[in-house]
């Protein structure tokens, strides 16, 4: 790789922003060829199940998928969220595999085949920043084109799953005070389970919804529940009142025939105090140091079960180093094919065994354990898992 001109990264980012949404990959190839003498650039997009990386050939066509887990360097870059430089058989050439991640939401990997950097690490760091810039532009481009969404799919989504994925805020989110990772299964046929989060300078709000029913019916219910909660939250009212307004909206539509079990959490980022409304079946686990325990909450009525239900808040506190895991009923009430429950013990063991893993890997490990227990990816019920590592806000000096 030749010496890089001063300011190349800023110029490249500007060119990406100016590129048509459908030409991000071709623009990236042209830029890296011009600035770094790159001989090849590949875009590998994470599929909905977060098990495969799909190399984009010409959108929306993809090449042979690369497993996220295993020895493939692109898979390792995605799993570890660190650049992996692969030495190739071509003299003087390497392939740099760089995670494309935007504020904790893992999108895929950018692989660049180029001359071995003469100065080593600095060139790789700038490439990593370029990969992040592409990730930002991908998220913006998805508002204008379906090509990148199609590139992520290894098979067709059900209509209910399409609705649920469009409703999500992302599958990860990282700020100074916390790191979030989440997973849904069956990824291509999810129906009623969902999660949502939003952050301000002072608070983080997380909800996990477990809509009753299956297929389109469950997806419509959950869409109403999540939209009602967002509408109430954006009105600036308390967590309990948010639950009450969403309850009224769902009851007004279904008159108690359908309802949404939902867990609402609101974190004070400065203090670690948490307000909680437990409206149904999602369960909350906490790992503090080496101890994993289920947090016992006062279970109230699911949203929409009865008319004009009043909700109240409970309080708990998190400490730096705590890990919280929320699981829907499709996880903690799941049964194997011979009728045995997955159960709390299995959840505790999985959470404890993944303590050193990222929040993303822990959320996926819980679902993987459930799939193995059930014996198939075609789960009988939807499964949603949200994992959060609490760092706390550093004290100002």
From TrEMBL:
Origin organism lineage: Bacteria, Bacillati, Actinomycetota, Actinomycetes, Kitasatosporales
Region forming the signal peptide: none
UniProt-listed InterPro entries: Bact_Sigma-Reg, PPM-type-like_dom_sf, PPM-type_phosphatase-like_dom
Species per Swiss-Prot/TrEMBL record: Streptomyces chryseus
Protein name: Phosphatase
Origin: domain of life: Bacteria
Annotated ranges, domain PPM-type phosphatase: 173-390
SMART domains linked: PP2C_SIG
Keywords carried by this UniProt record: Hydrolase
